[in-house]
Amino acid sequence: MTKINIAPSILSADFGKLALEVAEVERSGADWLHVDVMDGHFVPNITFGPLVLEAVAPHTKLLLDVHLMIEHPERYIAAFAKAGANLITVHAEACVHLHSVIQQIKKLGVKAGVAINPATPALAVREVIEDLDLVLVMTVNPGFGGQAFIPGTLRKISQIAEWREQLGLTGLHIEVDGGITAATAPLVVEAGADVLVAGSAVFGREDRAEAIAEIRDSLK
Ligand SMILES: O=C(CO)[C@H](O)[C@H](O)COP(=O)(O)O
Ligand SMILES: [Fe+2]
């Protein structure tokens, strides 16, 4: 059976006590830590850059899963790798030379992912899928936490899972991001996702261990 990884997104954490928030979700059963970087151009919101990642990294052993929602990601990949990223995901929509950006990430010894927005077809990753460690299917429009899951994204998850199967890409992760709760988690896992980002569903709750356990229990 495929291991399902739960990746709390620090976008919904209290930034005033980030190290404590990260330590708490680690103790509470998180598998990865999802780090949302927004530049106010690719998406309307602004979050943080490599200096904040560098400050958080020593406080956790969780895999640092960096989601770059920025224009010209190629300009910042080296800085995020140096700051401690274990996996860097760029948006297909933000890369003119997607193949080259993926190679740039991998040359730094970091795992490489490509994200696609709800309106972007699965085909946007087809020509590079064999070079990837992860495909991120956005299940909301990127920019903000706490939005409702878009059900139409399920068929893209299934399509990518079908390519994973056909091509024998057993190590390829399919991650979903946006609106993941105990109600939507079974749908995305059924479609083929194995990394579930959860921001408000975890950090929006007083008891983070209970929140993570509820998502896990929904998959039984
Ligand atoms: O990339 C993101 C937004 O662009 C976040 O990771 C995502 O929104 C998580 O938040 P929530 O689980 O509350 O929907
Ligand atoms: Fe994200």
From TrEMBL:
Q: What is this protein called?
A: Ribulose-phosphate 3-epimerase
**What's the encoding gene here?**
rpe
- Protein role: Catalyzes the reversible epimerization of D-ribulose 5-phosphate to D-xylulose 5-phosphate.
What pathway does the UniProt record associate with this protein?
Answer: Carbohydrate degradation
* BP terms from Gene Ontology: pentose catabolic process; pentose-phosphate shunt
Q: Read off the InterPro entries from this record.
A: Aldolase_TIM, Ribul_P_3_epim, Ribul_P_3_epim-like, RibuloseP-bd_barrel
Q: Which UniProt keywords apply?
A: Carbohydrate metabolism, Cobalt, Isomerase, Manganese, Metal-binding, Zinc
Q: Where does substrate bind?
A: S9, H67, G143, F144, G145, G146, D177, G178, G179, G199, S200
Q: Which domain of life is it from?
A: Bacteria
Q: Where is the active site?
A: D36 (proton acceptor), D177 (proton donor)
Q: Where does a divalent metal cation bind?
A: H34, D36, H67, D177
GO molecular function annotation: D-ribulose-phosphate 3-epimerase activity; metal ion binding
What family does the Swiss-Prot or TrEMBL record give for this protein?
A: Belongs to the ribulose-phosphate 3-epimerase family.
**Reaction catalysed by this enzyme:** D-ribulose 5-phosphate = D-xylulose 5-phosphate
State the Pfam families in the record: Ribul_P_3_epim
Please tell me one Gene Ontology term that the record gives under cellular component. Answer: cytoplasm
State which Enzyme Commission number(s) the record gives. 5.1.3.1
Q: What is the lineage of its organism?
A: Bacteria, Bacillati, Bacillota, Bacilli, Bacillales
Enumerate the cofactors the protein uses: Fe(2+); a divalent metal cation; Mn(2+); Co(2+)
Specify the enzyme's EC class, one word: isomerase
Which SUPFAM superfamilies is this protein grouped with? Ribulose-phoshate binding barrel (SSF51366)
Free-text remark on how the cofactor is bound: Binds 1 divalent metal cation per subunit.
